[in-house]
UniProtKB/TrEMBL annotation:
A biological-process GO annotation: DNA-templated transcription
Organism: Pseudomonas putida (Arthrobacter siderocapsulatus)
InterPro entries linked: LysR-type_TF_proteobact-type, LysR_HTH_N, LysR_subst-bd, WH-like_DNA-bd_sf, WH_DNA-bd_sf
A matching Pfam family: LysR_substrate
Record protein name field: LysR family transcriptional regulator
């Protein structure tokens, strides 16, 4: 005899999960059109699901403000609850997927400049030695504003304390010097003096982009450190190009567009290959500013995360030795 279960009132009273998913997207983007694009559905479908959910709850979830939407008080209460639930579901699903795969996924977060100039050329060797590990790379210029639910296993950052639950390993400090191509230097021999540099085509990292490498160094600061005033730059000097993308500045330097400031840990391979050269010997050494490797303490027992951490630290070791030898007593003290 078949035994019938009593109706589960909790499940019966739950709203449609499809509608709730649409609601979360609309709340996140504050725009029904963008929510529709993110979910690969039509805007009409988003509007219909929101209306059905509001009817079911008996409350308006959004207030229309022009083309955008804002959460009402009821909408904010509902979003706080369902967002946390969705994050938990997503993380549980990812754990199950990861365990069912032959490969282990490690999430690494760093700046776009570090990813392109330091990490990218080295990753093939890591994959060759670790075929059972996949890397989920997240690049950002704002390490303090991650997407909800994103908690990387490893950060490479200038923040000594990224957030609770991470242990930090100091890596390199900043050593900064001018770089250009050998051909550009041959065509502009005046670059071998600081005054000649001041009056050259300068590629400058604007304040917004300095979070990628160093928060407070640009051409004005670098030249002032060596007692040269950028304001005395000749009126006939060529262009002074500002950009917030360090990768772009390095590419401009590589194509002979001018002189960029090179952060040693990022441009050293290009200098070693002869693609870039240092027109002057002077450099700025910031002994008190470090880049850090931050490791998620919860992953201490995860062998894949530990292997990536140790590989990163090992890859930095030659750079640290290089920096130790480059610090000559005759150099001016760091500021």
């Amino acid at each position: 005899m078949v035994k019938h279960s009593e109706p589960d009132q909790t499940l019966i009273k739950m709203p449609s999960l499809r509608a709730v998913k649409v609601f979360v997207a609309a709340a996140k983007y504050q725009n029904f059109t963008r929510a529709a694009e993110a979910l690969c559905v039509t805007q009409a479908a988003v509007s219909r699901q929101i209306r059905e959910l509001e009817t079911y709850l008996g409350a308006e979830l959004f207030a229309r403000v022009g083309r955008a939407v804002e959460l009402t008080v009821a909408g904010s209460i509902f979003f706080d609850a369902v967002q946390l639930s969705f994050v938990n579901i997503s993380q549980a699903a990812e754990r199950i997927r990861s365990n069912s795969k032959s490969k282990h996924v490690v999430t690494l977060c760093c700046s776009p400049a570090f990813a392109a100039l330091w990490l990218g050329p080295r990753l093939p060797a890591f994959f060759d030695d670790n075929p059972d590990i996949d890397i989920n790379l997240v690049t950002t210029q704002n390490f303090l504003a991650m997407e909800p639910g994103v908690r990387p296993d490893i950060y490479i950052t200038k923040l000594g304390r990224i957030q609770t639950g991470y242990s930090c390993h100091p890596l390199n400090h900043d050593v900064i010097y001018p770089v250009c191509t050998p051909q550009y230097l041959a065509e502009h021999p005046q670059l071998r003096t600081l005054e000649g540099l001041r009056d050259a085509s300068l590629l400058n990292l604007s304040p917004y982009g300095r979070s990628q490498v160093s928060e407070h160094v640009d051409w004005n600061v670098w030249l002032a450190f060596h007692d040269v005033d950028l304001k005395s730059r000749a009126s006939s000097a060529p262009h002074f190009f500002n950009a917030n993308d360090y990768n772009l500045l390095v590419q401009f330097a590589l194509t002979g567009r001018g002189v960029a400031l090179g952060w040693h840990h990022l441009v050293q391979p290009l200098v070693s290959q002869g693609l870039l050269v240092r027109p002057v010997e002077q450099q700025l050494v910031l002994k008190d500013t470090f880049h850090f490797l931050a490791f998620n303490d919860d992953k201490e027992h995860d062998s894949s995360c530990r292997r990536l951490r140790e590989w990163l630290l090992d890859e930095f070791e030659p750079l640290l030795e290089d920096l130790r030898h480059s610090l000559q007593p005759s150099q001016a003290p760091a500021r």
